[in-house]
Amino acid sequence: MYYPFFIVYLIAGFAVTLWAFWWALRNGQFKDQQRARFLPLDEQGEQPAVTVTRLNRYQSYLLLAFAGSGLLALAAAVVYILVTGG
User: Fold this and answer.
1) Which one of 29, 59, 84, 86 is CB 3.0 to 4.6 Å from 24, fit for a cystine?
2) Integer Cα distance of 70 and 64 in angstroms
3) Residue 5, Cα to own-chain centre: how many angstroms?
């Protein structure tokens, strides 16, 4: 029943992959392979220190509050389902 959709997704994924590979070849993404192996050894220099602002701190707290409220709502739903029996 679901096989035709699966086969269509496989063919579409394969077509997109071939198109991306062809685009990379055409635009020269695979040129200069000798340089690519030395990129991890290249010095990047000193990275500037990250400054934490008050806004970043508030955003972090807000994100933790949203995550915590989501976990509490999930726990409340599980407890409600267990208590009511179904």
Assistant:
1) 29
2) 10
3) 25
C-alpha to C-alpha distances, 57 to 7, 54, 60, 61, 67, nearest whole angstrom: 48, 5, 5, 6, 15
Cβ contacts of residue 30 below 8 Å, gap of 6+? Answer: 24
Which 8-state DSSP code applies to residue 51?
P
> At which residue do the structure tokens 């739903």 appear?
77
- Kindly compute the dihedral angle of the four CA atoms of residues 11, 15, 17, 21, in this order, to the nearest 10 degrees: 150
Question: Residue 9: its pLDDT value, please?
Answer: 92
Q: Is the pLDDT of residue 23 over 70?
A: yes
Q: What is the pTM of this model?
A: 0.41
Indicate the pLDDT class of residue 59, thresholds 50, 70 and 90.
very high
Contact yes or no for 30/24 (Cβ under 8 A): yes
Residue 72 is predicted with a pLDDT of 95
